[in-house]
Amino acid sequence: MKQRVVPTQREIPFSSEELIVSKTDLKGRITYANKTFMRMADFSEEQLIDVQHNIIRHPDMPRGAFFGLWQTLQQQREFFGFVKNMTANGDHYWVFADVRPDYQDGKVVGYFSVRRPITITMRTTMEGIYRDMLTIEQQAGTANAPQASWQWLMQTLANRKTSYERFILDLYQQEAL
Length: 177
What we know:
By secondary structure, the chain is of the alpha+beta class. It has six helices and five strands, in the order E-E-H-H-H-E-E-E-H-H-H. A five-stranded antiparallel β-sheet has the order 2-1-5-4-3. A hairpin with a 2-residue loop joins strand 4 and strand 5. Helix 3 packs across helix 5 and helix 4 crosses helix 5.
């Protein structure tokens, strides 16, 4: 079970020359974490392997973002997104995540994720969206929260005449480090 960690509101940076890499099984349990992941999350390899990847989930992240991630991965498609992660001591760091199915002999055996640092503009944009999604989740109730906030985001982007993937990739490419 995930330990209850209190967020510190202290952001820790990482270099644009670094990549955070991890692999999970089909249920989201970590099977590999590179040294940058371990250093940023402040967990040892022993503390991470065979543990749910949500061990680093920050409470400021709406559940709907992960609903969209899993929905995309279950369609065997690549997912891009901005994520606020929490370290073992409650600090946080923001990433641009590229998550994709990991194939072995033509069969999906898990997921592979590469994360990069983001700019202040990217973070500010996503903080506003995630605040709105969290408000929707609170109003929708626990059972309906993830789907409700994800649907709100999809409708908001459709109203802007764009898709989720196009919005995320455009934001990243316009502001890339």
